[in-house]
């Protein structure tokens, strides 16, 4: 069998690879603690469950419009009005089977072979591969390792006649950064100046810490409306990862093209999952806030512990549920037979030596760092930090 060039060069998502390896070790009887998966440990809220059961009882098991049921699209538009004071109609909203398919459909709708997409490191693991699947070129903008902020001058210098889009993700996965208003406004102005589209991945916008407020780019630069596509969804804030429901909100012409692609691909998201998400949007906001409060407590716990860790420096997260830590001070050290030379060997040594699973920063285009998820219980976090501290003190 001969495979296509694009599938041959595709790399598996590192987040899944590590999670599956940790699961294999558990099956072998090893007590592995996972800080690798970006998935809340909460069960979906009662409002979601009730809406799904009501939809099943009503027999709503048929195909939906490719863009999603109009009631859910209207509720998403209403949410963007109440949350960000942005006016969208259901024709400017579509629902997909998670955020990833919508990101990919946006790339397919905007990129020709040979075009360029600007990615800001550290970046979500799938951006790079999705751009390459479109036979386009990812252009990676490196950030300041001390702050993980990008430079507008670097973005400007990277723009060429082949540039078509910029990926913006805040709160950022893996760093938890929320970029300054000045940086976001500057990015919007560059998009308008060069006729680029900003794909604004704000899937973590409800999970913010320490009194911070996440602001949508169009709150800061409303004149960029025709240059911004928002990607959001139910997975993270509503603890609905397995339901696979994402939202895309943006210019009607782009939404129409993406809907056409979806019609030829998945035909649309699960009908029952869509009605479940509608229940969450309409009746689950208090539950979302309670889960966000729990993430705040977990963030406080893990950062207190990391403050006392030798050899590590971390970027304080402002949102999402990740810690992105700098492991470069461990390079050149050993744990048993494992020589630590980079972020990948560091994570391997941590997994083998302390049975704690994390993700190398290289997967996010930021070598030298590693990502820990605190979307797990405080008991797991505490035990994982105990193990990590012992591991670090035992390095030679």
From TrEMBL:
Domain Aminotransferase class I/classII large: start-end pairs: 31-387
EC number, UniProt record: 2.6.1.-
InterPro entries: Aminotransferase_I/II_large (IPR004839), AspAT/PAT-like (IPR050596), NHTrfase_class1_PyrdxlP-BS (IPR004838), PyrdxlP-dep_Trfase (IPR015424), PyrdxlP-dep_Trfase_major (IPR015421), PyrdxlP-dep_Trfase_small (IPR015422)
Coiled-coil region list: none
Cofactor or coenzyme needed: pyridoxal 5'-phosphate
Keyword annotations from UniProtKB, A to Z: Aminotransferase, Pyridoxal phosphate, Transferase
Single GO molecular function: pyridoxal phosphate binding
Cited SUPFAM superfamilies: PLP-dependent transferases (SSF53383)
Pfam families linked to this entry: Aminotran_1_2
Claim: Hydrolase is one of the keywords in the record: no
Gene3D superfamilies: Aspartate Aminotransferase, domain 1 (3.90.1150.10), Type I PLP-dependent aspartate aminotransferase-like (Major domain) (3.40.640.10)
UniProt enzyme class: transferase
UniProt xrefs under PROSITE patterns: AA_TRANSFER_CLASS_1
GO biological process: amino acid metabolic process
Top-level taxonomic group: Bacteria
Reactions this protein catalyses: L-aspartate + 2-oxoglutarate = oxaloacetate + L-glutamate
Family: Belongs to the class-I pyridoxal-phosphate-dependent aminotransferase family.
Complexes and interactors: Homodimer.
Name assigned to this protein: Aminotransferase
Lineage: Bacteria, Pseudomonadati, Pseudomonadota, Alphaproteobacteria, Hyphomicrobiales
């Amino acid at each position: 069998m001969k495979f296509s060039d694009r599938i041959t060069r595709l790399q598996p998502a590192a987040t899944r690879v590590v999670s599956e390896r940790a699961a294999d070790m558990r099956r072998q009887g090893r007590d592995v603690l996972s800080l690798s998966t970006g998935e809340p440990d909460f069960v979906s809220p009662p409002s979601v469950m009730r809406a799904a059961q009501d939809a099943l009882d009503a027999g709503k098991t048929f195909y939906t419009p490719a863009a999603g049921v109009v009631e859910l699209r209207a509720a998403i538009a209403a949410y963007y009005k109440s949350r960000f004071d942005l006016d969208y109609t259901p024709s400017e909203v579509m629902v997909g089977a998670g955020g990833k398919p919508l990101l990919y459909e946006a790339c397919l709708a905007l990129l020709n072979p040979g075009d360029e997409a600007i990615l800001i490191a550290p970046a979500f693991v799938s951006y790079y591969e999705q751009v390459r699947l479109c036979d386009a070129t990812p252009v990676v903008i490196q950030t300041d390792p001390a702050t993980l902020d990008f430079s507008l001058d670097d973005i400007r210098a990277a723009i060429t006649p082949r540039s078509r889009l910029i990926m913006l993700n805040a709160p950022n996965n893996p760093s938890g950064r929320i970029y300054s208003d000045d940086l976001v406004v500057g990015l919007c102005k560059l998009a308008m100046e060069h006729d680029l589209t900003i794909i604004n991945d704000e899937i973590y916008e409800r999970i913010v810490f320490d009194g911070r407020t996440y602001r949508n780019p169009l709150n800061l630069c409303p004149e960029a409306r025709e240059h911004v596509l928002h990607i959001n969804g139910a997975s993270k804030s509503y603890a609905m990862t397995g339901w696979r429901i994402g939202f895309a909100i943006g210019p009607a012409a782009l939404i129409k093209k993406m809907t056409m692609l979806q019609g030829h691909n998945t035909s649309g998201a699960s009908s029952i999952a869509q009605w479940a998400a509608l229940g969450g949007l309409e009746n689950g906001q208090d539950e979302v806030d309670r889960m966000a409060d729990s993430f705040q407590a977990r963030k406080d716990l893990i950062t207190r512990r990391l403050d006392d860790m030798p050899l590590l420096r971390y970027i304080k997260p402002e949102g999402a549920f990740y810690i992105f830590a700098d492991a470069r001070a461990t390079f050149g050290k050993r744990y048993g037979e494992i020589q630590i030379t980079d972020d990948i060997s560091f994570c391997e040594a941590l997994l083998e030596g302390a049975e704690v699973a994390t993700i190398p920063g290289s997967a996010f285009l930021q070598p030298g760092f590693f990502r820990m998820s605190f979307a797990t219980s405080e008991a797991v976090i505490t035990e994982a930090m105990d193990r990590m501290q012992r591991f670090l003190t035992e390095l030679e």
